[in-house]
Amino acid sequence: MKLVRMNMNMNMNMKTWTGIISLILAFLIPLIFGINQYLLTVLIIMLVFIIYSSAWNLLALSGQASLGHAAFFGIGGYVSAIVANTLGMPPIAAIPVGGLFAAFIGVLIGLTCIRMREWFLAMVTFGFAIIAHTITTELSWLTGGWDGIPAKRLIPVTITNYIMYEYYVILLIAVAVVVIIYLIAKSRVGLALQAIRENELEAKVMGINVIKYKLMAFAVSAFFTGIAGALEIHHFGYITPEVYGMDISFWPILYSISGGLFTVSGPILGTIVITFIWEVLRAFGLMYERFILIGVILVLIVIFLPKGLVSVPEKIKSRLQL
Amino acid sequence: MKMNKKYGILFAVLVVSVLLVFAASVGQSKEPGVEEIKIGIVAPLTGGASTTGTDMWQSAVLAAEQINAKGGVDVGGVYVPITLVKGDTETSRESGVKAVTKLITEDKVDLLIGGFSSGITYADQVVAAEHKVPFIITGASSPIVTRRTDIDTSYFFHHCPTTDDYPEATLLFVNEVVKPEIYERFNFSEDRPLRLGVLYQDSKYGEGVYEGIKKAIEKHNLNMEIVSAEKFKMSETDFRTVLTVIKESKPDVVYVAAFLNEQTLIVTQGRKDVGMNTIYLSVECNDDPDYYTGVGRWGEYSIQESRFSPYTIPSGPIHEAVEKFREDFKNRWGTSPSMMGASTYEGVYIAAEAIKNAGTLDKEKVRASLAELEMPQIVEVMQNGVINFSSDYRESKFALYMEQLIWNESVGETRPKIVWPDSIKETDFVLPDWYEPGSSPAATATATKATEECKTLWYFDEESLKCQQKEFCGMYMYKGLRTFETEEECKAALDKYLREKGEEKETPAPEEPGFEAFLTIASLLAIAYMVQRRRK
Amino acid sequence: MEPGVLIQILVWGLYAGCIYILLAIGLNLIFGVMKVVNFAHGELLMLGAYATFWIYTLSGVNPYLIIALAMIILGIIGVFIERLCFRPIKGTGKLNEIFLSLGLIYLFQNLAALLWTTDSRSIHSPYSNVSVSVGSVRLPLDYIIIILFTIVFLIAFQLFMKRTTIGRAMRATSQNRDAAALMGINVERMDMLSFALGSALAAAAGSLWLISGQIVDPYMGSIPAIKAFAVVIIGGLGSIPGAIVAGLTLGIAENVVPLFMQSFAGLLGVSMSFTAWKDTIAFFILIIVLVIRPTGIFGEKGE
Fold it and tell me: Is residue A207 one of the residues assigned to a domain?
């Protein structure tokens, strides 16, 4: 018993250590490498996807795998852009509005999905992304249709080194989101979600209000996804219906699985590692090979490393101890 | 506790080294020197539109090499060579923004050329506007790229026809040539408006063309009526229902705004399955060898708009230049250039000319020089024969021409012939016998008569390689069938066909199916699986 | 709308339905036996169409004869996929199956793009110039053949499942796997066979798709596969008659409903084209059915 406890402590400590060190590093990057716009752009997109994948992973924690999260990503972006443009709000104030609206839609979608089995849910969420795309292009008086609409920049370009401030703002938001998700996952809510994932019927018998918790997962996940989408488009400065693309729905899945499903650190690690691999392969000039490799990685991880890359140290340790 | 620290430090070292490698891979920026002109080519080299992107890159390389072979560009008395840098947008917004940022801040390019797909260009323009880098856009068809107001667009120059330009030329042609021909044959009165059916892609591009059609009708006060306007989802493959609906609206001509794959299917399904025997009008970007192969005989007599055709060269001043460009491209890359390649090729020359006139690489001066540029047309026909950018929205104006697809026996495919404008036309527009106009009870009788006329002809096809005689009634066609008036003609053509076929057989098939690769990968996976299982 | 036009559009819908049915039955079979949903089923359709395209281009024989060959090739590929990918993760949860098939989608699409470029390919059927006219309705011969082919496939499939030992063993496995295993049925072999058969049916659908005058490119598989899923779900997982009814319904509905919506909007004084809404409508139907009956119309009770 004592031994186990020590082990847990050790693990905790190790995780906190790596967390703190990587956080410090993340804050130091602009100081170490200077204000390098390309590096910071890559990192900003990475941070956005860290938020996005973490949010997706939270929904997966409750056993609901969405194949159409781009719907929330896009809705968050559109609502935030429209609110910022028409009400003259600063983007930073409009972003939560985008998130809230995405959460609202998330609850509606969640309600339709509540009783569905995994693959039905996957299909239906996928369908919602297509429906969101169609509706957005049809509402052209509001959304600009296929032309899209301009979005205000998060930090006005006129400020010198705006990209650095943008990076810090997004970094802070990302840290906040990860901490909140961590707290949720560790709380009673998180345990309830896990119980539902493991066995819905048993969870019900244990007195867990399955519907409430499932909807909650949908709302929170959609909220953070909407925030990620809003951050991205306020960084790009323009939004078009391309945000509902199938690839936008698939990336967070890939990131979460390769990092480690149902863990807080998994999506973060997955996003960093896969982005890194992707950029390196780009430097080598590989084309389709890159996508093929991503497919192979996904297949191999599902088969051989179902707990993702975060489980690698443990695996190595257990190998060494044996 | 020791252990934890060790892990922590190990992790920190790992992260730092990874970041260093990363920074090294992105940070190989050289000092901006006067010894080279750096031009970034923004194109989708991977992803859905990679064929076009590769073509754009290859054309740019060709232009740069040609300029460098002559010593480079004269920048204030010093001859400086051009260096091109790839910026792969991967057909996605995220990668587009990353690529353009890298070109501007890492590679420190003096100028950008390219930009395919309007949706992606909208996003990556923002970066170029922010850094005030001149951008010659040669691949996005939306007029918005130089008209949007949320960013400073004065650094963008649009060298590519827009979705407003496409319908204007086509509808003027229809009004001047096709309409009189139809009205004469079917005795329509002059004041009957021409019935126009429109089928467009549900996208920025398709919607732009549809808006352009309405604008053009209004602008030139054309006596035309849009009797149906239907859209379809991008990369749709089954158009039968929507074509049936359009057929029901009884159009005289059908304007299709689609990409190549869709255009091929629309024309074949429209003629073959739905039986809508009308004149199909196709937008400029489909003038590609694949289109001619795809539509086969079903494309016969349809109309193709063009600015740079793979199979025909407009007569006149640029004839030789086009021939030379094609020749050089073939020698350098082994393939033929497409229209996106042609405008990107011109883009590099435009950039060189503007820098020469500016006499410096200073971006503001290059921009000013681009705005005032006036240079002779290169490989595509321009209005008034010169390339210059309009003062309002910085768009160059192309002189688009119209081609009709005419069946060519010796290649077994249709080939384009220029039919408009009159100054460069190769042949007259032909209204086919099988053509059926929109509504006109009196005239349909004559039309059906024409299609049901029977003829005794000599023929051969791929199944029976010998000349035979048979009675052909109405429209009769399939791949490989060739018909002739006399037996001699038939035999001569058959001999030629057999000879060509024999030659074809000697050369090995250019493309091999790659199932063996699947099996290799599968067996590798199998081995991995076995190894893993044994370890357990 | 004139009745002639409506009937014509029903014919096009019928054809689309045939393709969905062939895909959906394969999916259903795999689900029934293995309790696995293969989201990469559309990629098998794509590979089947490519197989037919290449065999036709290299040999030039009648494309309808090639279908059998394409089915065999895809059957073998199906066995590989089952052995190498789905069997190792069996029993580790449904989420893993979904993710695995996503990986396979990436893998197959881009492998095809790498090997055969993204150019779209088409073949011309030898009967493409022949069509039968009934009144104002046109019936191209290829469509009649395709509809007949589908009927023959369905009858043969039904006979196979009902009359042969293997077919019976498969049905037993899908009804109760453990009991079937106890009765001496090699359930793992049944898994393999069902996957091979499902893939072969996808190949047949792909070949018919190509022959009817549509194109094949590396990314063409996703949309028909998604529709096939909708068909399986609407018809009920594991139900073959359900798949047939739902397939025909979906094929016809997605072609006809946009026109009704258009007429309806016209009555309200709004001129709007809904023909681009095909996929959206398919999903609306799917969602409505699932909200009303979470197990599908003909589905068995949930777990």
Answer: yes
Residue A286 lies in a domain: no
> Which residues on chain A are in Cβ contact (under 8 Å) with C24?
none
Tokens describing residue B318: 């640029």
A284-306 pLDDT, tens digit per residue, is 767 678 888 888 988 999 988 88
Partner-chain residue, chosen from A22, A240, A276, that has the shortest CB–CB distance to B122:
A240
Q: Indicate the pTM of the whole model.
A: 0.82
Structural element, H or E, at residue A61: helix A37-61
Alpha helices in B102-163 (DSSP H): 118-131
Residues of chain B short of pLDDT 50, as ranges, are 1-3, 24-33, 441-452, 475, 504-511
In A, minimum Cα distance to C115 occurs at A288
Q: Which residues of B touch C118 (CB under 8 A)?
A: 48, 50-51
Would you state the pLDDT for residue B31? Answer: 44
Residues B260 and B383 reside in one and the same domain? no
Contacts 24+ apart (CB under 8 A), B368-373: B370/B134, B370/B136, B370/B157, B370/B394, B371/B154, B371/B157
Strands in A175-257 per DSSP E: 238-239
Q: Are C115 and B235 a contacting pair at CB < 8 A?
A: no
Cβ-based neighbours of C148, under 8 Å, separated by 6 or more: none
Neighbour subunits, A (≥3 Cβ pairs < 8 A): B, C
On whether both B156 and B182 belong to a single domain, the answer is no
In percent, the amount of chain B with pLDDT more than 70 equals: 80
- The strand pairing partners of B82, in sequence order, are B37
Residue ranges for chain C with pLDDT beneath 50: 301-303
Is residue C19 in some structural domain? Answer: yes
Give the neighbours of chain B: at least 3 Cβ pairs within 8 Å.
A, C
For residue range A47-61, what is the model confidence (pLDDT) as tens digits? 999 999 999 999 999
Q: Is B54 on the interface with A (CB under 8 A)?
A: no
Q: What is the CATH number of the domain that holds B146?
A: 3.40.50.2300
In this structure, the number of other CB atoms found within 10 A of the CB of residue B453 comes to 11
> Which of B15, B93, B203 shows the shortest C-beta gap to A236?
B93
Q: Which residues of A touch C276 (CB under 8 A)?
A: 134
Please identify every stretch of chain A with a pLDDT value under 70, giving residue numbers as ranges.
Answer: 1-13, 285, 287, 322
Task: Look over chain B and give the mean of its residue pLDDT values, rounded to a whole number.
Answer: 82
